Every structure is written in C-alpha cells, then in structure tokens.
Amino acid sequence: MHDLKSKRNANRILSEMKSYLSNFREGYDTIYYLNKEGREYIGANVVRKKNMQIHHYLMRSEFYIFSGMPENFETEIEVSDGCTRVICDAWFWKGERANFLEVDNEQSMVENRKKIERYKKIYQSRIFQDSEDYGYFPKLNWLTTSDYRKRKIISYCSGLPYSVFTLKDIK
User: Fold this and answer.
1) Are 138 and 100 in contact (CB under 8 A)?
2) pLDDT tens, 82-125?
3) Do 4 and 16 touch, CB atoms closer than 8 A?
4) What angle is formed at CA 76 by the lines to CA 1 and CA 56, rounded to 5 degrees?
5) In a 10 Å sphere around its CB, with 0-12 CB exposed, 13-18 middle and 19+ buried, how is residue 152 labelled?
6) pLDDT at 159 (0 to 100)
7) CA dihedral 51, 56, 62, 64 (to 10 degrees)
8) Crossing angle of the two packed helices 147-156 and 109-125, in degrees rounded to 10
C-alpha cells in the first residue's frame, strides 16, 4: 500500500516510529495506532485505542483497501429521506458511482435485517433515483464474517442494488 518493498522494511520503519505508536496483537497480526505523543505530533484529535469495536474498524479498513482506497471514503454518514434515517458505516465513490458500506461483525441478524429494511424504505422513497445529482440508488455493499451470514444478508437485500462479501472474499 505504501510501497515499502518488504515486510522487513515496514517493520524497521514502524520500529523507528515506536515512540509515537502503541500496538497490540490480533491473531498473527500486530495492529499499530497513534499514542498520545503521535497524536500530538501530527495534530490528530481522534483517540483510537483497542476497544470492543476494533474488529469493526479493522474490517472497514480492509474494505477500504479492497475497494482501491477511494479518496472520498467517509465513515459514519447519515442517510435520510426525511422520514427514514440510516447511519452507514461508510460512504464512498467507486468510479462515477456512489456506494454505501455496512460492516457486519457481531451484530445480530435481526438488527441487520432492520437496517436493510430502512435502506429499502429510502430506496422506495426514490430520493436518490429522482435526484439530478444521482439518478440511481447507490449500491449497498456488505462485509461480513461467514458464508452463512453472507447468505442471510443476500436474502434480506432482494430488491436493492447490493453486493455482499466475506473477509475471505476480499483478502
């Protein structure tokens, strides 16, 4: 991604930055994030630490890389038709087309179904399709953890423009 040529070189660079970084192990991977000194050094205001949502953030980042690292990848965006409201995990453009991203890590399938129903209501309102800016409903992309969950989400999304991926599909 950053053209560091090798894993060894990437680890050397991260080692040189250790006074600005904290890390933790996740399976076989090491996850790095800015510590207080690192945030102050670059002027970052957002504090990221290991928490209950870390898998959600990591999955969203995996999809960001998979989708070609779009410049306009915005997270936690509210979408509304005036009556129905959804907060999508990410909103981005792929080529000339807008896309939604939903990350399904540990959320119940009942909650996923409810969220898809809200997307369907926004779809039926035609707010995007009748807009001069769009003329279509953005594709709803889902990233999930298993083939079982993928099949369930596919069954809920009928009638919407959608794609469903597992982590295995995009790595």
Assistant:
1) yes
2) 999 999 999 999 989 999 999 999 899 999 999 999 999 999 99
3) no
4) 60
5) middle
6) 95
7) -110
8) 30
Q: What is the pLDDT of residues 27-70, one digit of tens each?
A: 888 889 999 999 999 999 888 878 888 889 999 999 999 999 99
DSSP assignment of 10-32 equals: HHHHHHHTGGGEEEEEETTEEEE
Query: What does the alpha-carbon distance between residue 158 and residue 151 come to, in Å, rounded to a whole number?
Result: 11
Tell how strand 97-103 and strand 85-94 pair up.
antiparallel
Give the pair of three-digit tokens for residue 44.
């970052």
How does DSSP assign 88-107, residue by residue?
Answer: EEEEEEETTEEEEEEE-SS-
In contact, 117 and 153? CB cutoff 8 Å: no
CB-based contacts of 92: which residues, under 8 Å, 6+ apart? 64, 67, 70, 72, 73, 74, 98, 99, 101
Residue 1 tokens, joined: 């991604």
Q: Quick one: pLDDT at residue 113? A: 97
Torsion sign across C-alpha atoms 119, 122, 126, 127: negative
